[in-house]
Amino acid sequence: MKIRSALTIAGTDPSGGAGIQADLKTFQEREVYGMSVITSVVAQNTLGVQQVEHLPVSFIEKQFDAVWEDIKPDAVKTGMISTIEMMELIAGKLRKADVPYVIDPVMVAKSGHTLMEEKSRSVIRNLLIPLSTVVTPNVPEAEFLVEFPISTLEDAEKAAKLIVKELGAKAAVVKGGHLEGDAKDVLFDGKEYTYFTTERIDTHHTHGTGCTFSAVITAELAKGKSIKQAVEIGKGFITDAIKYSLQLGNGNGPTNHWGYRLKGLPSQEEK
Ligand SMILES: Nc1ncnc2c1ncn2[C@@H]1O[C@H](COP(=O)(O)OP(=O)(O)O)[C@@H](O)[C@H]1O
Ligand SMILES: Cc1ncc(COP(=O)(O)O)c(N)n1
How buried is residue 270: exposed, middle or buried, by Cβ count under 10 Å (0-12/13-18/19+)? Predict the structure, then answer.
């Protein structure tokens, strides 16, 4: 059996719900060997972000080269990349990489703390998105990328198409977690729209949902699944992870990366 591997390039969450920690747990559950390059070390938990320390770009490069020169991954994802210099480095590395690349364009944590410097936002649009296989913005991130407000499904469709046709991604999923009503995500793959819809789960345990969702997509692309299949598996995985979320932390709690194994059982909130 060929062992598949995936690399996440992102910031950390010592409380384990988001960032690198969420990505590695997700890769493991999807039976993909997980590797990581840390961009920033973040002191955070379910209540919020307390402090952010960026690693020197030269050291981010050392980590990247250490992985790439030894175990070349079958897919890559990026999460929190705060500065222009980090983006330039990663773009330079990934321009030469012929593997699927998923961008979760993390800008602001759910707790409100900025994770991407404002001046870097146009750089992710111009430098990284053209290299990507799939971009997975939430609504505020998509609004920034396309520069129009998104409040309806039609707006989300228009945004996904623009990210592909004008910004140069191969595909885009605009996630509906921040809209009203059902949790409806829209994928545009260059040809058509596909919709992934579930009922909205009434919970505040949503710390790291976007990280986990994009990590599943990365793992599935590493295994050779199509973009559509990868997003479908991602949606199922994150829905169970939210439904069976762990009752941990005093704020926006983490999701449950083994939630899919509890399918059919009552969730903690239903018990
Ligand atoms: N309350 C919820 N119930 C069901 N699905 C949700 C809920 N909140 C988010 N999702 C789903 O979780 C995934 C991540 O979305 P979102 O929370 O918008 O991302 P982000 O963490 O980037 O803000 C999407 O598939 C979205 O539809
Ligand atoms: C290192 C890192 N990456 C991403 C997020 C976003 O997750 P959320 O929006 O759920 O706070 C985060 N809080 N920390």
Answer: exposed
CA distances from 16 to 25, 77, 177 (A): 9, 18, 21
Quick one: which H or E segment has residue 214? helix 209-222
Is 5-257 assigned to CATH 3.40.1190.20? yes
Q: What would the pLDDT profile of 135-160 be if each residue is shown by its tens digit?
A: 999 999 999 999 999 999 999 999 99
Domain segments of the chain as ranges: 5-257
Ligand nearest to the CA of 137: 1
**Distance between Cα 2 and ligand 2 center (Å):** 32
Mutate to test the pocket of ligand 1, among 111, 175, 244 (most ligand atoms within 8 A of CB): 175
Q: Give residues (CB < 6 A) around ligand 1.
A: 138, 175-178, 183, 185, 198, 200-201, 203, 206, 209-210, 213, 235, 238-239, 242
Provide the pLDDT confidence category of residue 265 given band limits of 50, 70 and 90.
Answer: confident
Write the pLDDT tens digit of every residue in 204-230.
999 999 999 999 999 999 999 999 999
* 19 noted as active-site residue: no
pLDDT at 185 over 70: yes
